[in-house]
Amino acid sequence: MKKVQDLFIKLVKIDSLFRQEKKVADFVIKELRKLKLDIKQDKFGNIVARSKKFDSKKSILLCAHLDIVESNRGMKPRIKNGVIYSDGKHILGADNKAAIAEIIYSLQKAKDFSNVELLFTVQEENGLVGAKNLDKKLIKSKKALVLDYSFPPGYIALKTPYAAIVEIEIFGKSVHGARSNLNHNAISVSGACATTITDTIDPDINCNMGMINGGKAVNAAPSRVTLKLEFRSFSYKKLRNFLDKNKKDLKKIASERNCKISIKKLNVGSGYSYNKDDEFVKEIINNFKKINIKTKLESSVGLSDANILNRYGIKAIEIGYGPQRTHTNEEFVVIKDMENMSEFLEVVMKG
After folding, report:
1. Helices (H) and strands (E) in the chain, counts
2. Strands (E), the chain
3. Cys bridge to 274: 16, 47, 111, 278, which one at CB 3.0-4.6 A?
4. How far is CA 335 from CA 5, 117, 258, 322, in A?
């Protein structure tokens, strides 16, 4: 039997930017067929698989995503002192290929996996799109482990935030730069809006202004400016109240300067929260104890398919699986962490 790192290396050499997952999906399906699993793929491309002897009464869903955040075509992974790195020019793609390798490898080693259901989603990196479009009728399990917390095995994300993306479009008038003033000036309004947001935001809300776009020439005031911001908070009430009040404040700013404004909100993910006394949490902790791995209970500021699965009524918890410095060219994964995670999954399969 090949080692987990051999499977992982094969996976990261398959470029699978979101919306371009077909090649890696074909690879995964091929490996699952070798295990004689019952495999289904919904219209959106998500893969669901389970044993032909599947027992839904005691089942657990293992979830990973097929896509990566950016193309790593041509990436040549390096192995040094038990650690797998990217070539420094690309991301490694361990997020989430390490999870896929660990799941498949543990299935190959397990004698019985009739209690396990698998979900491999597409387009996770561009807004959990695959999970949001999942054919929910295909999933039979009531609880799930989502291998997408970029920490070593043993880390458990008990809490994740609510998130919203807000797109603000400001419409003014295009005039020559020599004659521009604050009136009808979309750039001026965008600056005032940004200042208002950062000056009035609640300390329990995180805001990232990720995109600003506007203007065609340095000597002309643009007629249109677009801002895109992401907000995250563990309190849905605080996030909702802030966005509602902020919308009124921004409209007032635009009106005072004779500009029009459009504010669109897109809910990206619903937060979830569990405590250490939850039966499923205790089950996860106990399974890690069986392979002598200490657990660390945390609040994660990130989002994953676990957020969407919880919205569907599935008790889903995101757990660490090895990769670190994800979404960067310094991304790496320790081989021992992948081996430990595979061993943990074998324990899960034993029930």
Report:
1. 9, 18
2. 38-41, 47-50, 60-65, 78-80, 83-85, 116-121, 143-149, 155-160, 162-171, 175-176, 205-214, 220-221, 224-233, 260-269, 272-273, 296-299, 315-320, 332-334
3. 278
4. 7, 25, 60, 8
User: Three-state secondary structure along 34-61?
Assistant: HCCCEEEECCCCCEEEECCCCCHHHCEE
What kind of architecture, by CATH, is found in domain 162-269?
Answer: 2-Layer Sandwich (3.30)
Q: CATH 3.40.630.10 region(s) of the chain?
A: 4-160+271-350
pLDDT-based confidence at 177, cuts 50/70/90? low
Which residues make beta-bridge pairs with 160?
Answer: 272
Residues 6 or more apart whose Cβ sits within 8 Å of residue 283 = none
- Residue listed under structure tokens 């543990």: 106
Round the average pLDDT of the chain to a whole number and report it: 94
Secondary-structure percent of the chain, ordered helix, strand, coil, rounded to 5: 35, 30, 35
Q: Is residue 222 within 8 Å of residue 185, measured between CB atoms?
A: no
Residues 6+ apart with CB under 8 A from 64: 96, 99, 100, 103, 119, 120, 121, 146, 147, 148
Would you tell me how many other CB atoms lie within 10 Å of the CB of residue 241? 13
DSSP letter at 17 equals B
Tokens 């309004």 sit at which residue?
189
**CATH assignment of 4-160+271-350, given 3.40.718.10, 3.40.630.10, 3.40.47.10, 3.30.565.10?**
3.40.630.10
Contact between 253 and 186 (Cβ < 8 Å): no
Copy the structure tokens of residue 82: 């038990």
Residues 14 and 27 sit within 8 Å (Cβ to Cβ): yes
Residue range(s) in the chain whose domain bears CATH number 3.30.70.360: 162-269
Q: Give residue-wise pLDDT tens across range 280-295.
A: 999 999 999 999 999 9
